[in-house]
Design a protein that fits this description.
The complex is a heterodimer of chains A (493) and B (122). Chain A contains 14 helices and 22 strands. Chain A is α/β, with parallel strands linked by helices and 493 residues long. Chain A folds into three domains: 214 residues, FAD/NAD(P)-binding domain, CATH 3.50.50; 127 residues, FAD/NAD(P)-binding domain; 89 residues, FAD/NAD-linked reductase, C-terminal dimerisation domain (Enolase-like, domain 1), CATH 3.30.390. In chain A, the strands form five sheets. In chain A, strands 1, 2, 3, 4, 5, 6 and 17 form a seven-stranded mixed β-sheet that branches. Chain B has a five-stranded mixed β-sheet with strand order 1-3-2-4-5, sandwiched between helices. Chain B is globular. The chains are: A alpha/beta (493), B alpha/beta (122). Chains A and B meet through helix 4 of A and helix 5 of B.
Chain lengths: 493, 122
């Protein structure tokens, strides 16, 4: 657990170079390290209260040399390009369905990766620029420089030309986020790509092996296949660890039935380049997790999506005494996002035991700043946060999975209501009639309060958002039953 | 070498000029036409132009600054004009870095700091 220390007020002491006991004025009220979802939200909020704020954002290039602009993971190499490419894949499916609805076109429809990637990158560029303008207009100082602590209340900012500058601040917010993990096998960094590279790849990835079973892996595999590419997913053990496993398996089955190959129970041990090119050809050698079987495969592209590591190990935290979890790299904070060092806070994906989602980071950042500078008292509510996985069959969820509900309340105390449904829009083009699925998990001992909501089907994200609000209000099964449905939509189920 | 300015009027002339300088950084300011006394029908353009001109020296070497008149008010208001359709302009004045999503629109052009940021950003 983390002890909360009251900050020393009103004197701020700078203990460097032997200076002692002199009240000090800092360069900034707040320095934010990391210009992503959490960092920018907090910086803009602090500027509203006329605080002097600096944002340091720097993208260490990927092993293949790729980099991007201000905005963090979500904007550049996460949620935004992912959803756009997922949409591109959905449109491909819609084109196929459209013939059954009477649209007539004679040629077969093809897809241009370059056209899509260029449009996506253009949009992202406008977002990067928008953030630059917003920060400037709100008088937040922004530097494209790598920030690291060098002493109490002091950071060093190094820009891409190696020029170093020192800045001091009364308070700091660490919002450095994460980067994709590599396998640590021969050939991984030289030949494999990650999500950091995929969305701006200057050539079509071709026949792709996706290594991993995270939502990143399945979402990417999903849209790549939806664009017409041959896709294989190599999974070490289970799909979507941490998510409801009943639903995770349905997602996997759906993807498999729609042409995505799965290799289960294997991990790559070596990547070799057979042929250079854009894309080239790579040989992947993999070993079974259960025995000694070795298999080989040849692919144009290998996409690693096996997890993400926090960017907390090289920012000088040890110099200011901020404790991190040595094993995971995550930063433990109290319920006010404060680290063990009273003037240093943290938000976003780097937090220990908190959800790694953009809206969570934004909310936490904003509420933190309100508490610091505007007398706010609200703390970020990390419970019942809705989320959506944008696999080919989308999955929206809020609250407990079936297995965690059973673990927490006991099987006899929960009731699960579920049903399959067939979206009306899928009937005419004869799409699957038994794959979409919804379930709610209720706590019998608490008036059958709805504690878990899960929906598998089109527009899952849109459906889930409303239910998340209802769950936050403590909706019970009876209230849900007495809510008349909208017809004909999937959500009425 | 510094930078140079080209003054053009209308979409075809703009495109032709931009293509001629392909490979060099190109910045463009789009304004409403000026009358015989040199006054534009667009009051925001009148405010923005001197602010932009004062910052031109911040453009990188070899830059080309294209000062483009978009036409009279009626032509500009037509939703099908080529500036709107092809360059996706939504308002005048617009200051943009050609070939990138970086642009400043209307009151953003009044702020020297933002104009400077557009000219010096890489």
């Amino acid at each position: 657990s983390v002890q909360v220390h009251k900050e020393d007020k009103p004197q701020k002491l700078l203990e460097m170079n032997g200076h002692t006991s002199a009240p000090h004025s800092y360069d900034y009220d707040l320095i934010v390290i990391g210009g992503g979802s959490g960092g920018l939200a907090a910086a803009k909020e602090a500027a509203k209260y006329e605080k002097k704020v600096m944002v340091l954002d720097f993208v260490t290039p990927t092993p293949l040399g790729n980099s991007w602009g201000l905005g963090g993971t979500c904007v550049n190499v996460g949620c935004i390009p992912k959803k756009l490419m997922h949409q591109a894949a959905l449109l491909g499916q819609a084109l196929k369905d459209s013939r059954k609805f009477g649209w007539q076109f004679t040629e077969e429809v093809g897809h241009s990766w370059m056209t899509m990637a260029e449009s996506v990158q253009n949009y992202i560029g406008s977002l990067n620029w928008g953030y630059r303008v917003a920060l400037r207009e709100k008088k937040v100082t922004y530097e494209n420089a790598y920030g690291e602590f060098v002493g109490p209340h002091t950071v060093k900012a190094t820009n891409k030309r190696g020029v170093e500058k020192l800045y001091t601040a009364e308070r700091f917010l660490i919002a450095t986020g994460e980067r994709p993990r590599y396998l640590n096998i021969p050939g991984d960094k030289e030949y494999c790509i990650s999500s950091d590279d995929l969305f701006s790849l200057p050539y079509c990835p071709g026949k792709t092996l996706v290594v991993g079973a995270s939502y990143v892996a399945l979402e990417c595999a999903g849209f790549l296949a939806g664009l017409g590419l041959e896709v294989t997913v190599m999974v070490r053990s289970i799909l979507l660890r941490g998510f409801d496993q009943d639903i995770a398996n349905k997602i996997g089955d759906y993807m498999e039935e729609h042409g995505i190959n799965f290799i289960r129970g294997f991990v790559p041990i070596k990547i070799e380049q057979i042929e250079e090119g854009t894309p080239g050809r790579l040989k992947v050698i993999a070993k079974s997790t259960n025995g000694n079987q070795i298999i080989e495969g040849v692919y144009n592209t290998v996409l690693l999506a096996i997890g993400r590591d926090s960017c907390t190990r090289k920012i000088g935290l040890e110099k200011v005494g901020v404790k991190i979890n040595e094993k995971t790299g995550k930063i433990p904070v109290n319920d006010e996002e404060q680290t063990n060092v009273p003037y240093i806070y943290a938000v976003g994906d780097i937090l220990q035991d908190k959800l790694e989602l953009t809206p969570v980071a934004i909310q936490a950042g904003r509420l933190l700043v309100k508490r610091l500078y505007a007398g706010g008292t609200t703390k970020c509510d990390y419970v019942n946060v809705p989320t959506t996985v944008f696999t080919p069959l989308e999955y929206g969820a809020c609250g407990y999975s079936e297995e965690t509900a059973v673990e927490k309340f006991g099987e006899e105390n929960i009731e699960v209501y579920h049903s399959h449904f067939w979206p009306l829009e899928w009937t005419v083009p004869s799409r699957d009639n038994n794959k979409c699925y919804a379930k709610i998990i209720c706590n019998i001992q608490d008036n059958e309060r709805v504690i878990g909501f899960h929906v598998l089907g089109p527009n899952a994200g849109e459906i889930t958002q409303g239910f998340a609000a209802a769950i936050k209000c403590g909706m019970t099964k009876e209230q849900l039953d007495s809510t008349i449905g909208i017809h004909p939509v999937c959500a009425e189920v | 070498m510094g930078w140079e300015e080209k003054q053009v009027r209308g979409y075809p002339e703009f495109v032709q000029t931009a293509q001629r300088y392909h490979g060099r950084p190109i910045f463009a300011l789009f304004c409403g036409d000026k009358d015989a006394e040199g006054r534009s029908w667009c009051p925001d353009c009148v405010t923005a132009e001197p602010v932009v001109r004062k910052e031109l020296h911040n453009m990188p070497n070899e830059s080309v600054f294209i000062y483009c008149l978009v036409g009279d008010r009626a032509h500009w208001k037509d939703p099908n004009n080529e500036f709107r359709k092809n360059l996706k302009l939504t308002a005048v004045p617009t200051l943009l870095k050609y070939g990138t999503p970086q642009k400043l629109v209307e009151e953003e052009c009044f702020k020297a700091e933002l104009v400077r940021m557009l000219f010096t950003e890489d």
